Amino acid sequence: MRSFRAKALQDDKNVRIFMEQDLETARKLFAGPCDFVLGVAELEQLPESGRPEVAFAGRSNAGKSSLINALTGRNTLAKTSATPGRTQQLNYFDLGGVLYMVDMPGYGYAKVSKSQRYDWNKLIKKYLCGRPDLQCVFILVDARHGLKESDDELMKMLGEAAVPFRIVLTKSDKAKGPELEKMKAEIEEKIGKLPAAIPEISATSAHEGTGIEELRAVIAGYAD
Ligand SMILES: Nc1nc2c(ncn2[C@@H]2O[C@H](COP(=O)(O)OP(=O)(O)OP(=O)(O)O)[C@@H](O)[C@H]2O)c(=O)[nH]1
Ligand SMILES: [Mg+2]
Hints:
Strand order of the largest sheet: 3-5-6-4-7-8-9
Bound molecules: guanosine-5'-triphosphate, magnesium ion
CATH topology: Rossmann fold
Helix content: 25-40%
Order of helices and strands: EEHEEHEEHEHEHEH
CATH superfamily: P-loop containing nucleotide triphosphate hydrolases
Number of domains: 1
Structural class: alpha/beta
C-alpha cells in the first residue's frame, strides 16, 4: 500500500494539511494544457454549462491575471499590465478539459468611463449570481491594501447569491511578515461572520511563487 506523507503548510492561525498526493495531482493538472477559450463581453456568449468553473475577481491591478499565469506556469497566458483595467472581459481558460478558470475584469478603477463601468458591473453581477457551474470565487486582495469597500460589496453580493468565496492575498512579496499576519488576522475576523466565506486565506506571490503550489491544490479540488 502506498503511504501518503502529509505536508503541513502552516501559518500562525491556519493549518491546512495537503496530502503530497493532492499537491502532485494538482501539479500535473496545471502542467498540462491550459488554453484561452473565449472572452465574454455579453452574457449570451457564456459557454455551455456543465463543467465546473472558478472565477478570479478583485480590484483592478490586484494581480488576477498574473496569478493565473503563475498557476499555469505560462507568463503570457493572461494579459497583465501595470495599468489598471487591463482585463476587460470574462476570459475563459480551459484547464485540461476538467475546469474553467475565469479571469474577470477588475473593479474599483475610477478612470474607466461611467457607461463602461456600468456595463461591466451589470455583466459581472449577472454572471456571478446566475452561473450554476461557478464553484467558487477567489477574491484577490493586494496584501498591502487589504479589503476595500468594493470588495465588501462583492462579498455581500456573493453572500446573497449563496456563492462560496475565498480570499487570496496577492503580492505577498511586497508585504513584510508581521504586516501580512496582521492583514490575515483582520480579514479572518471580518469574513468569519459571513456564511458564504471559506475561512482559509491564502497568501500568494505570483512573482516569487509563494503559495502557488497550495493554491493549485485548492483549485484542483474543484475540477471534475
Ligand atoms: N510585486 C508583485 N507584483 C505583482 C504580483 N502580481 C502582479 N503584480 C503586478 O501588479 C500589476 C497588475 O497585475 P495584473 O495581473 O495585470 O492585475 P489584474 O488584477 O489582472 O488587473 P486588471 O486586469 O487591470 O484588473 C502588474 O504590474 C503586475 O506585475 C506579485 O505577486 N508581486
Ligand atoms: Mg487582469
